[in-house]
């Protein structure tokens, strides 16, 4: 009962409420000294109670002080950890970007051999939706799906290039299936060196197909007609931009 009354008193003062919640079992003895304050005003009572708590908190051993201030320490500790993680991520990203810039320099030196090759004799392997296409200038790419963000007549810059070659030369470029921020940065840098552009010339549907849907232990077979969409691209430009 005494502990319940103590907790009710703790709710009256918002400043000392979290400390009272932790110190309630430690301050049962000082509460007996506060009986004669029952007829006084609530402000004087809270003031006297706060002074007793501050005196009691100073006399506590360090272990109990750490228990009381654990919630505030936890919040500060977690915020410091999050800030440190952000700093580490920024440092890691900067180091990866430096590595990418060094690889781009090596790629530019390696591609010097392709400067003398005419653009019509070049070929490249481009990945579209993680599927490789071997292309040259003027080729048609028949994609068996609908590119929603592309309309007829729009030009597309293909930036996921894995190979480059000619009749006498071949060069493999660094690629990765899981595209992170650094991988996209690398692809954009490579696409600045090797520029491949395509034009959407047609968006249509394939021929109609009769499909039968058969199920086990079912006498009725469902038959329907499907027309899958397709998108046709023409390679407009394939060139190397090296000074």
From TrEMBL:
One Gene Ontology molecular-function label: structural constituent of ribosome
Top-rank lineage group of the source organism: Eukaryota
Coiled-coil positions: none
A GO cellular-component term linked to this record: mitochondrial large ribosomal subunit
SUPFAM superfamilies noted in UniProt: L21p-like (SSF141091)
Family under the similarity heading: Belongs to the bacterial ribosomal protein bL21 family.
PANTHER family assigned: 50S RIBOSOMAL PROTEIN L21, LARGE RIBOSOMAL SUBUNIT PROTEIN BL21M
UniProt protein name: Large ribosomal subunit protein bL21m
Lineage: Eukaryota, Fungi, Dikarya, Ascomycota, Saccharomycotina
